[in-house]
Design goal:
Blueprint lengths: L2 H37 L25 E13 L1 H8 L6 E15 L2 E11 L3 E10 L3 E21 L4 E23 L6 E23 L6 E25 L2 E22 L7 E25 L2 E23 L19 E25 L2 E25 L7 E25 L5 E22 L5 E25 L2 E20 L13 E20 L2 E18 L5 E20 L2 E15 L9 H4 L3 E2 L2 E13 L2 E13 L14 E16 L2 E14 L8 E13 L1
Antiparallel strand pairs: 1-2, 1-27, 2-3, 3-4, 4-5, 5-6, 6-7, 7-8, 8-9, 9-10, 10-11, 11-12, 12-13, 13-14, 14-15, 15-16, 16-17, 17-18, 18-19, 19-20, 20-21, 21-22, 21-23, 23-24, 24-25, 25-26, 26-27
């Protein structure tokens, strides 16, 4: 970001903060003065009348609130890792208006509400105005902006100690929304709303697609990359509902325009003479229009019908390039000497896409007998899409010349599908202390996909593929909830899901399309079984426990033209969670949560021998997570809250002699203490201290940190 743009950004942030902060202070002071004047006796020359001693003053009620806060975080270690985990900036002072709520009557039956928030250096802003007259309508405007942080570090190779990180590790992405909405809510007339919304994303975030390096003498993909994001969206929508007898009818339209100017930035060949920078620019302009309608008819207490229909159209224009150069955002140079074999790029991308979607659904709720509810439903979807692109492809040949060849190409694709989903749900409550339910869902679909790539000048076909596909998805669910005791409930649910996908390929034998997904697959089947059990027990009025266990099994089988029929994946996941809430006395409460997950995925690669056995390791995703909160009423106007959190994941397998090791080896602990003190009617101050510790062995300790947080706040109710 250049200096002028950065200065403009800072100025805009300061303006947002000052607007909310000054408004909050003015409203707070004015309201305080108003309250003080109202509390003084009238100056009539006569002594103020005294209230009878036996009559107590009513307790004060407050409609408005203002909270100011400030804090500081000191980080010893990797500040970027801390910011990503806790989503606050490291080694920065932050503060401002934590929350503001003000409401007042501006006329008969009309209320004005103001809500705000402005935390400087957290880039956390909110300002909302809402004017409501219940029998007429409403008008509201909102602005919200917040920042998310990500860590721009790369990978770690234990065998050599190689570690790569970006120049600026603490990457930040700002997101915001501005909206204006008006509605008419007059009784017995159609309810109408009209809304305009502007959304944006601006900044940088990390990417999981890494560049390669020879750090430590080994060629490994461990160099971090980043995404430059610049996106805006504008949305206009209008909706209306009205009731005719026993039927509610709703109609709506929505129009959206998107403007995306993003880039992915990769460094390749770090540590070699072939160092080059890759910039992938993606430009997308999109128009989306949809219209929808629904009906809701209650024929009587035992029959109710709802229907819905939606039609949408998406038109997109795309552009971009993938360029290798001596720096990011380089100009394309066919003679750039550092490009290596398989450094494929392109320039002058120009294309478009047209997508049409139609969806209709209907749900019928029947109560044929007491305690029995039957709900059949159907959903039909049709989608048609087509696209075309033109670009100049730049491929690099093999050593020793690494000559770049540039050719103009054109590509075309079409996609069509029709899906029909039928569903039946039954619920029965006729057995005392039991709730039983079952559901069946069936989706049948078929579609076709075709793509072609030709050389622009000669019209020679490089690829020509057509695929017809069919889908059959079945899901069966059953469950029960039992209340054997007033303080005990048991619930269990099971579902079985089968997904069968078949592909019929029509491929030009002169091309290699059969080597590209899904050209080599003729059948792909996925079977999933999931069962969960939950027990909620309240043995005493002051103690409540919730225990849950989940088991999920999944298998993936495939068959194809170049692969044999086989089980390609088998996943087993166990998740156990426990929650305890204990209030031994009115001044003390305790809440604790424990989660444990054990997840394994096995593939035929697990049976490989020799060097291949070390390149593909077992996929694991196990973790522990524990949280505990203790609240104490230290004195009549003093409260103390203590919180502890622990996280542990140990899934890391070091195969760095053969490839890039993946998996987590992370332990995190945090302790916070918050002291709140009421210092007067409607006023409270709070002081918070937090300690955060993270040890990431998978990064060789490079992402470790210890952090201390100190913050204070003052809340004023008026």
């Amino acid at each position: 970001m250049n200096f002028a743009k950065r200065l403009t950004s800072y100025s805009r942030q300061a303006t947002r903060f000052h607007a909310v902060f000054v408004g909050a202070c003015v409203l707070g002071c004015a309201s305080a003065a108003h309250a003080q004047v109202a509390a003084q006796p009238a100056k009539t020359g006569a002594p103020a009348a005294k209230a009878p001693a036996a009559v107590s003053a009513p307790a004060a009620t407050y409609n408005n609130e203002l909270t100011l806060s400030a804090g500081y975080v000191a980080v010893d270690g990797d500040g970027a890792a801390f910011s990503q985990r806790q989503q606050i900036p490291s080694d920065e002072i932050f503060g401002g208006v934590e929350s503001l709520h003000y409401e007042d009557a501006v006329g008969k039956d009309t209320t004005l509400t103001l809500d705000g928030r402005a935390i400087a250096d957290n880039h956390d802003y909110k300002l909302g105005l809402n004017l409501v007259a219940p029998d007429v309508g409403y008008l509201k405007a909102d602005y919200t902006e917040f920042r998310t942080w990500s860590d721009g570090s790369g990978g770690y190779i234990p065998v050599s100690g190689a570690w790569r990180e970006a120049g600026d590790q603490e990457l930040a992405l700002d997101r915001g929304t501005f909206s204006v909405e008006a509605g008419l809510t007059q009784p017995d007339l159609p309810q109408l709303t009209l809304k305009y919304e502007h959304q944006f994303r601006d900044g940088r975030k990390s990417s999981t697609i890494w560049g390669d390096s020879t750090d430590g003498g080994l060629l490994r993909t461990i160099v971090p990359t980043f995404l430059d994001i610049d996106e805006t969206r504008d949305i206009v929508s209008a909706d209306g509902t009205h009731t005719f007898g026993n039927t509610e009818l709703g109609l709506g339209v929505r129009y959206e325009t998107d403007d995306l100017e993003n880039s992915r930035n990769i460094t390749r060949g770090t540590g070699t003479s072939a160092l080059r920078y890759v910039t992938i620019d993606d430009a997308v302009d999109t128009d989306i229009f949809d219209a929808h309608a629904f009906t809701d008819t209650a024929f009587n207490k035992k029959v109710r019908l709802t229907t819905g229909y939606m039609v949408s159209r998406l038109d997109s224009d795309i552009g971009g390039s993938r360029i290798f150069g001596s720096s990011y955002d380089a100009t394309f140079d066919a003679n750039f000497a550092r490009r290596q074999y398989h450094d494929e790029g392109y320039t002058d991308l120009d294309g478009s896409a047209d997508v049409r979607q139609y969806v209709a659904n209907a749900n019928l709720m029947l109560v044929p007998a007491d305690n029995l509810t039957v709900t059949p439903a159907i959903r039909i979807e049709k989608l048609d899409a087509e696209g075309d692109t033109m670009f100049a492809e730049s491929n690099v040949g093999a050593a020793p010349t690494f000559t770049t060849a540039v050719e103009e190409l054109e590509a075309f694709n079409e996609r069509g599908l029709v899906d029909a989903t039928e569903e039946l749900e039954v619920r029965y409550t006729g057995i005392r202390d039991w709730v039983l339910y079952a559901a069946a869902e069936l989706t049948e679909g078929e579609g076709d996909y075709s793509e072609m790539e030709v050389e622009a000048e000669t019209q020679e076909i490089d690829m020509n593929r057509e695929t017809d596909d069919t889908r059959l998805v079945q899901k069966y669910t059953g469950g029960a909830t039992w209340y054997p005791l007033k303080a005990l409930s048991l619930a269990s649910q099971y579902y079985h899901k089968i997904s069968d996908n078949e592909y019929d390929h029509v491929t030009d034998p002169t091309t290699s399309a059969s080597d590209q997904y899904p050209g080599y697959i003729t059948e792909l089947d996925v079977v999933t079984d999931d069962i969960n059990v939950r027990a909620t027990w309240r043995p005493f009025n002051v103690l409540t426990t919730v225990t849950r266990y989940d088991l999920q099994l999944a298998t993936v089988d495939q068959d194809g033209t170049t692969v044999d029929a086989s089980e390609t994946a088998d996943t087993t996941a166990h998740i156990v969670s426990e929650s305890i809430t204990w209030t031994p006395m009115a001044s003390v409460y305790l809440q604790a949560n424990l989660n444990y997950a054990r997840n394994r995925t096995t593939t035929p690669a697990d049976e490989a021998t020799g060097a291949a056995a070390n390149r593909v390791v077992e996929s694991r995703n196990d973790y522990w997570n524990f949280n505990q909160v203790v609240g104490l009423a230290v004195a009549e106007k003093t409260d103390l809250q203590l919180q502890y959190s622990h996280f542990r994941a140990s899934d890391y397998l070091d195969n760095s002699s053969y490839g890039v090791p993946y998996g987590a080896d992370l332990e995190e602990n945090s302790v916070t203490a918050t002291l709140k003190q009421e210092i007067g009617s409607g006023m409270q101050v709070a002081l918070k201290y937090g300690f955060y510790m993270s040890r990431d062995d998978a990064s060789g300790g490079n992402n470790d940190y210890d952090a201390h947080l100190v913050s204070t706040s003052m809340q004023y109710l008026f």
